[in-house]
Amino acid sequence: QPEEHIFGITTQKDNFEIIDSDSVLGIMKYHSEGDNVLFISNLQTDPSYKFRKLQIFRKYKGIGKALIDQIKSVKEGKTLVLKSSKSAKRFYKKQGFQHDEKKYNDLMFYK
Fold first, then answer.
1. CB-based burial of residue 82 (10 Å sphere; 0-12 exposed, 13-18 middle, 19+ buried)?
2. How far apart are CA 91 and CA 29, in angstroms?
3. Spatial CA neighbour of 79 closest among 42, 44, 108, 41
4. Confidence band of 6 (pLDDT split at 50, 70, 90)
5. Which are the contacts of 74, defined by CB distance < 8 A and separation ≥ 6?
């Protein structure tokens, strides 16, 4: 079983030993698969902060992008792989992930 790692973004300003779940804006879980791949198993943002098209005004923007930027900064030459829903593929493509529908139905890659 690979060791999972978690990145998080929170509004919490202190006492990080105990995370206040009401202050979490987004999290990402990932693990290594072999020597050359980091697999992103989960990326979630607080839904109350993400629906611009519905004209829900939000205080914080770019949470998902910030999480992706963080893992890109530590990937050290490894390929990032994730399984994407149809609704999220556009977001990941904007972050530089590629998708080959003929070979992989829902996997996306970033090198």
1. buried
2. 17
3. 108
4. very high
5. none
Integer-rounded Cα radius of gyration of the chain = 15
Does residue 83 register a pLDDT over 90?
Answer: yes
Structure-token pair, residue 13 = 């300003």
- The phi, psi pair for 29, rounded to 5°, reads -110, 140
The pLDDT assigned to 56 comes to 58
Chain Cα centroid distance, residue 53: 20
Q: Which of 80, 37, 81, 42 is nearest to 64 (CA)?
A: 42
Render the burial of 34-69: b for 16+ CB within 10 Å, e for the rest: eeeebbbeebebbeebbeeeeeeeeeeeebbebbbe
**Its pTM surpasses 0.85:** no
Residues shown for the chain: 111
